[in-house]
Queue: 3 jobs
Job 1
Amino acid sequence: DRSLTIAKALAYGAIGVQALALAFLGDRPDGSPEAQARTALQLPLGSILLVLIGLGVAIYGLTQLKMAWTAEFDEDIDTSLARREASWILPLGRIGTGARAVVLVLMGVALLRAGVSERPTDADGYREILLTISSINPWLLAAMGAGLLCFGLYQLCHARYAKLALPK
């Protein structure tokens, strides 16, 4: 559905802009997934639930990384039309998908670690992952932000080149 793809594009574009602002302006975003992890840990078998969620997010990130590496694209995108009209879209998608995949893997590992240690402070979301990347190297964060921005742009293009399901 094109509207869902446009919503994803806006969300990832905003995350990319946030990462770039953090890299170049030093803006520190508010909020933390710690409260949600704390709530999950209070549930019966909450630590197992958090481990499973983290594992699921990390595995999904790895599948996205494979998708970016092998240049696989969503089945609903008309790649032949995209190649004919705008050949730059598909490399943009690979870069963006790769950046998003790295963030997802790191976030999944952090959630898994929070579940195993039963410490909600170990849970990280997008913002915390970007802050961690920033502490390692601001240029790495800038590259990650640019990659996430690429994913947002790709999603806008994906909306344009999506195969439409015709009603029967």
Note: The mean pLDDT is 79.
Job 2
Amino acid sequence: MNGERIRLARKRAGLSLRDLADKMQGIVSAQAIGKYERGEMAPGSEVSLALSKALGVSMYYLSAPQQVELGKLEFRIKANTSTKDRARVETEVLEWVERYLQIEEILGEGGGWTAPDGMRRRINSLDEAEDLAEELRHYWDLGIDPIVNMTELLEDAGIKTLLADLPEKVSGFTCLLKAGTGEQEIPVIVVNRGQTLERRRFNMAHELGHRVIHPESAGNMEKLCHRFAGAFLVNRRHLMKEVGQRRSALGVREILDLKHHYRVSAAALLLRLEQTGILSRRFLQKAFRTFARQWRSAEPEPLEDAEGKQSREEEPRRFERLVYRAAAEDMISLSKAVELLRAPLADVERGLRGVAH
């Protein structure tokens, strides 16, 4: 039993030691739970099961045989985010990564981070952030064309990508996880499912910036990652090819068509036009005072409808594919597939056989 996991799950549930003991109907004292968390005592099977039920997490999570540990998390969140919110995010990420590693181990399909050794570096300006985005595009052989599926790109590069139901205050974060007793580090990017597809794509690119921009770089890290994200999603040379090197103005229809072409928000597209020197700052300021004044709060012509019916193409698919592959080849049981996917049996049967029995 992993004491740190008990503590994290308790914080996630917003329970004190005394509250948790009461919720377990007094089968163990608050003092004993404190000792479990500090690793001074180990609970028996009955107490472990009671802890699991009271905390709403699996026994597998509490026992943590994979020994996955979170590195330092850099949350892009509001300052008043609660300890409970943070613990909830950490718990969800740990559970998900452990299930991911289980299926990779079964299939022998572990993927590694494929950024070049010298990519993570200190930079000193927004222009260098732009250059770094172009360099990474070149390394991944992406050319200058728009990126159709940002999520798939990250997964193919060996970055574990999670779309999670996070608190509204949490935009996203990136971290390195340590797995097992070796030195393996697993890069993870988490973004908030509750945000628009445009924002999710930008957040993924922003968090990718945190993976390649050294934290000791000069200047504001968030601004550097924002510039990196804009340059990565909307390549300067491609944008100039589409609209020209210098424009005095663009009409709303042209801006919205470009937004769909690059699959970014209309506001981000406008900012990118100014960053590249195509539009002047004066025009940008005028746009946000007039026709674009609502674009930061309400996305015009969104990429997905109100129910998110068009967003499945941008959801992480690799973990699910690996589970169904293992089930189809009888490497895991149907019940194991249900456990890994955290999905209803009927849904998993339908995904495997096309019909629920």
Note: The beta strands are 69-70, 160-164, 172-178, 185-192.
Job 3
Amino acid sequence: MKNRIAAAFTGAPLNDPLQTVFRETVLRYSIPQTYFDELIAGVHMDLAKKSYENFDELYLYCFRVAGVVGLIMLKIFGAHDDRARQHAIDLGIAFQLTNILRDVGEDWARGRIYLPQEDLKRFNVPEEQIAAGRIDQNFISLMKFQIDRARRFYAQSAPGLKLIEDPSSRLVASAMKDLYERILRKIEKNGYDVFSRRAHTRLAEKMAAVASLTLRRSRR
């Protein structure tokens, strides 16, 4: 895959229609090859690592698999203010942290745990407890800590939405942020049960969120 992506950034002829379209896209939006190199490195981390010792390690993973996606989308959405770059990374990190919190049980079943080992020890939540899906006050405190961390990244990303120049793209990014933040509220509403209840937003909630955002922007 890495070679196929690299080939699209050269001037060599391409026989694969998918590569051709990919080349046209990255050239049109001036998306650097380094973004895709980071993304592939993140996928390799997922294959090689089953756990993360601390948040610094987890942050690198989140940056590679999601923060970089934020940078790619920023190129497509359009934002020429340099400040938008870090905000896009923060939003990608927030999305990935939300996915991790929503999928604690599912990830464990797949042989992975993304919650930093350092945090598990801090809140006295052993991996055996994750395996058993046992929710106690220690686990709830751990989840509250993780949710607060994710919300800080959402808050840090918020100013970047105003820097997206295209109104439609700005609406899409805002809707995605709003819907993902709702997942955190669902986790809280479910009593932090991320083992037997999957936090998700229903179609009606998604439609209502988009309608609300559209209405708020039309009044400005």
Note: The chain has a mean pLDDT of 90.
